[in-house]
Amino acid sequence: MLNNKTIAFLGAGNMAEAMISGTVQSGKIPAEQIIVSNRSNYGRLQEMKAKYDITAITKDDLPFDEIDILILAMKPKDIDKALDSINHLVRNDTVIMSVLAGITTSHMEEQLPGGQPVIRVMPNTSSMLKESATAISAGRFTSREDMENAEELLSSIGEVFVIEESQMDIFTGIAGSGPAYFYYLMEHIEKTGAEAGLDPKLARKIGAQTIFGAAKMMLEREESPTQLRENVTSPNGTTAAGLDALAQFGGGKAISEAVKGAEKRSKEISSSLQSQELVTS
After folding, report:
1. CA proximity to 7, closest of 100, 94, 75
2. What angle do CA 260, 176, 121 make, to 5 degrees?
3. Beta carbons within 10 angstroms of residue 234's beta carbon
4. Rounded distance, CA 192 to CA 190, Å?
5. How far is CA 109 from CA 52, 70, 182, in A?
6. Sign (positive or negative) of CA dihedral 63, 69, 74, 77
7. Which residues have CB under 8 Å from 69's CB, separation 6+?
8. How many CB atoms lie within 10 A of CB 190?
9. Residue 104 contacts residue 119 (beta carbons within 8 Å)
């Protein structure tokens, strides 16, 4: 269904590039049908054109009449300005997909022409390797076909989860921000390994492979995380000593609070935008 669709990205940041990279690698959409744009950073556009062999143009030159799916990938604070600049240009059947944390479908629908199909999306930067965990939720005017096209497109960058929009903030806390938690963990694993005499790059590779293998086992087996942890923890053994240290220094609490913190911030972004609407209405 996608081989005749034109996909455009409004925003050329890291998330847009991650999604473009995964999509191009998948081969589901010809590169010539993918457009990336931004307001004025021509150097960035030329870089992405050379890298992915896609069309790269400034926003003012976007061929809105030809765009079937428009992916909003700018910073969340710029959403209102972006919607105001496109609401009189997009076709009424163009599907608007937003990857912006905290921006609700209703917020976008209110600023777009009546009946515009809107889909809220939360991928993560693992899109670049086609390993993203991506959530999508539909707006009021989104059809079944729109959602099927979105799922097909996003499946090219990883696994897609269709969820209620009310669950999007917690998904953001777990998956949208999740890669950063892992990188933070790896910073400390690499540092500790180096302090013990390991080459930092070797410590990094050992840690990453260990976590990759554990994650793969969890995905492929039926045991819960608790069961898997208990399976590898012998009484008074090395793993038990490590887990005792995590508990002593609040490891579990820190992880929980990290997810809650990202979820809270996603909700704050949404609430802030709604407050602005009330002031200006």
Report:
1. 94
2. 120
3. 9
4. 6
5. 32, 14, 35
6. positive
7. 5, 6, 7, 8, 94, 95, 97, 149, 150, 153
8. 21
9. no
**Residue 233: Cβ within 10 Å count:** 14
The vertex-117 CA angle with 114 and 121, nearest 5°, equals: 135
Complete edge-to-edge strand list for the sheet that includes strand 55-58: 55-58, 34-38, 7-10, 69-72, 95-98, 118-122, 132-138, 158-162
Question: 69 by DSSP, 3-state: which?
Answer: strand
pTM comes to: 0.85
The alpha carbon dihedral of 71, 73, 77, 78 has a sign of negative
Query: Over the stretch 251-263, which tens digit does the pLDDT of each residue have?
Result: 999 999 999 999 9
Q: What is the C-alpha separation between 112 and 134, in angstroms, rounded?
A: 24
Measured between its terminal Cα atoms, the distance across the chain in Å is 40
Which tens digits make up the pLDDT trace of 170-215?
Answer: 999 999 899 999 999 999 999 999 999 999 999 999 999 999 999 9
Residue type, 13: G
Instruction: For residue 209, give both structure tokens.
Output: 């492979």
How far is residue 101's CA from residue 81's CA, in Å, rounded to a whole number? 16
Q: What residues pair up with 85 in beta bridges, in sequence order? A: none
Helix H or strand E encompassing 263: helix 251-280
CA–CA distance, 228 with 218 (Å, rounded to integer):
8
Identify the CA nearest to 165 among candidates 219, 119, 133, 196: 119
> How do beta strands 132-138 and 118-122 pair?
antiparallel
- Region of 279 please: left (phi>0), alpha (psi -120 to 50) or beta: alpha
CA nearest to 103, candidates 273, 234, 225: 273
Count Cβ atoms below 10 Å from residue 243 Cβ, excluding itself.
Answer: 16
Task: Tell me the residue type at 136.
Answer: I
